[in-house]
Amino acid sequence: MSDHSTVNFPDLLDAFMWVSGDAAFSPEAYISRESGKIYWKGFDDSNLEEELPDDIDDPDLYVPVPSKNDLDLGRRLVFRFAEEHLGDACELVYGFFRSRGAYARFKDLLDRKGQLDHWHDYENKAVEAALREWCEDNDLRIADTPDRPGPTQS
User: Fold this and answer.
1) Consecutive H or E run containing 32
2) How does pLDDT run across 71-125, given as a tens digit for each residue?
3) What does DSSP assign to residue 1?
4) Is the separation of the CB atoms in 116 and 86 below 8 Å?
5) Sign of CA dihedral 109, 113, 117, 121
6) SS3 for 50?
7) Contact 140/4 with Cβ under 8 angstroms?
8) Burial class (CB in 10 A: 0-12, 13-18, 19+), 123
9) N- or C-end of the chain: fewer Cβ atoms within 10 A?
10) What count of Cα atoms within 13 Å lies in the side-chain half-sphere of residue 21?
11) Taking the model in full, what pTM does it have?
12) In this predicted model, what pLDDT tens digit does every residue of 61-70 receive, in sequence order?
């Protein structure tokens, strides 16, 4: 594909959050390789504003939006943050993820340590960087809005 389709970053981020949401809703989203338009899909498609194209499953025409797990932004990101910023609490964080409710316990720990805002910034930057790399890998160009410039290089 010689021309890159353009996708709006805030729309891509919304679709990413949808796909990363509750699996019970079977959330999916696809980007048109031709137009950059995002199509949403769930277990109850009756709420969709428009019908999905018949050829939505054609990988030459549409690319599925990845989830947090697809981009390795789940527990591994939590572990990287813990290793970089929580020092002696790392083992505690690892222990959280051996049972249900891990994210709630992790965020409670962050709140107690005054690190919750730092975690949100860390996670947001990681998500943005991963989505930008994913777009590049899939021949999609991101349209940044004036209030949302690209990430700064550090």
Assistant:
1) strand 28-32
2) 999 999 999 999 999 998 999 999 999 999 999 999 999 999 999 999 999 999 9
3) -
4) no
5) negative
6) coil
7) yes
8) middle
9) C
10) 17
11) 0.82
12) 999 999 999 9
